[in-house]
Design a protein that fits this description.
Number of domains: 3
Radius of gyration: 20 Å
Helix content: over 70%
Amino acid sequence: MTDFALWTRAVQARTESALSRFLPDASLEPRRLHEAMRYVALGGGKRVRPMLAFAAGATDAFAFLLLGGVFTANMTGNLVLAGLTERPGYATMIVCVIIAILAFAVGLFAAFRAAPPGSASRRLVVVLAAGLVAQIGVLIGWLLHSLFGPGNRLRP
């Protein structure tokens, strides 16, 4: 088993354990609601959900800490930031928020044009591959900046 596979299983197990602790027991009233909550969040066939939630959270943490305090995975956080008018550097931050929201909208538009709902799975794979290529590009840019950017010893 690869390191990545071991890591994903560990994250899934931690996420499932936390969700199981926080969700109400299915035997409590209203039973039907609690059963539905547990069915949606837990169990086989839904293992990718915790990984996606973890990836979105990690992406937002990375972006918020390293890219000027703006969220990239969840746009609702950016709307909250836009309302914090007393925040230092508000003008710069609001420009970054607007760029993030516009980029998100353009990405959604492009994805839905390339693979509309109900389209063949091959088109969806193309959209996901394009997203992966974009993420790899950001990772490479970040690594190059951290190695060769201003204030780094490896700068040529």
